[in-house]
Amino acid sequence: MASSLRLEEPAVFAGSWQATLSGRDDTPEAQALQDKPSNTCVVELQVNQNLGKGADCLGAWLEQTPIGWFPDPDGLSITGKEGSRIQFFSRQRDGLYLAALKSGLKITLERTAQ
From what superkingdom does this record's organism come (predicted)? Predict the structure, then answer.
């Protein structure tokens, strides 16, 4: 059966995104109240599919240095220096993506107001 998911152009994703690291059972409301610098950072997805500011912060959570990104029909992939995927973020809704780490923690990427 053919997939009905559409692959978005990279320009759709380019811009600032808020990345938030949280525990498995943290609710978004509880996470927002914590607002610790160590669990949030702004990540810049550049039009040329490189990561700009915030790449180091995201890399600390992924345990690899993220270099780039690309859209997937059902999400967004972060790539390492070899160009291979190091983390997949599944689409939850427009502007909100979620990744589960091996440690049990999760990272959400949410588009910031433009």
Answer: Bacteria
pTM: 0.83
How do 68-72 and 96-100 pair as beta strands?
Answer: unpaired
Q: Where are the domains of the chain?
A: 13-111
Helix segments in 42-104, DSSP class H = 55-62
- The C-alpha atoms of residue 74 and residue 12 are separated, in whole angstroms, by 14
Classify 80 as helix, strand or coil.
coil
Give the start-end residues of each E strand in the chain: 15-22, 40-45, 68-72, 75-79, 85-93, 96-100, 106-111
**Mind listing the pLDDT tens digit for each residue in 53-102?**
999 999 999 989 999 999 999 999 999 998 899 999 999 999 999 999 98
CATH code: domain 13-111 is 2.40.128.10
> How far is 113 from 16, CA to CA, in rounded Å?
8
